[in-house]
Amino acid sequence: MDISEEVIKTCAVLAKGGSIIYPTDTIWGIGCDATNSIAIEKIISIKKSPPSKCMLILLDQAEKIHNYIHKMPDIAWDLITQTTRPTTFIYPKAKNLPGNLIAKDGSIAIRITTNEFCKRVIRLLGHPIVSTSANYAGKTPPILYKDIQRELMNQVDYIVNPNISILNENKPSTIIRFIDDFSFEIIRE
Fold it and tell me: Which of 14, 27, 114, 142 would give a disulfide with 147, using CB separation of 3.0 to 4.6 Å?
């Protein structure tokens, strides 16, 4: 399978407001263009997620974080550079993203992906992509493609070819929330 061809097909779907099932750097996810509120609403509906359940965005490089938050906590760069496994950071005061993606407290969860396919999609699309596990709310996240429920697959616009999948991890990412400039809490290890 040619990864370049799959990146182009995936971006064409995302650019039209479509939803995808795709391999991330941790597990299989459902995603869309993170700047498209209608596409985000579709994912919320597909997953049957409660309104309080937040999704994260994937970026291809840390330097882009400032485009989506008002202020980078002072401790953030130290933590970002020291993490050795996929880590999602929750930043206060999101910006430039649809309201249905931002948590009620104004925060946004961001992970810098290490997955080459995801990086290339984000670069070509020119926007971050939403990432949430490819399962119904409350169900076990799928590590392998074969673990994704068929009913769920039938609800998205495109499923990325599983032959390009190389997961760096086999579990959901670590989650860290910034409390202020110098403190944080670990939500999930």
Answer: 142
* Cα 57 from Cα 109, distance rounded (Å): 6
Angle between helices 3-15 and 116-125 (to 10 degrees): 50
Q: Which residues contact 51 (CB under 8 A, 6 or more apart)?
A: 44
CATH number at residue 15: 3.90.870.10
pLDDT in tens, 70-124: 999 988 888 888 887 888 999 999 999 999 999 999 999 999 998 999 999 999 9
Closest to 168 in 3D by CA, of 114, 120, 129: 114
In tens, the pLDDT along 37-63 reads 999 999 999 988 776 667 899 999 999
Which range marks the domain in which residue 42 is found?
3-188
User: How many domains does the chain divide into?
Assistant: 1
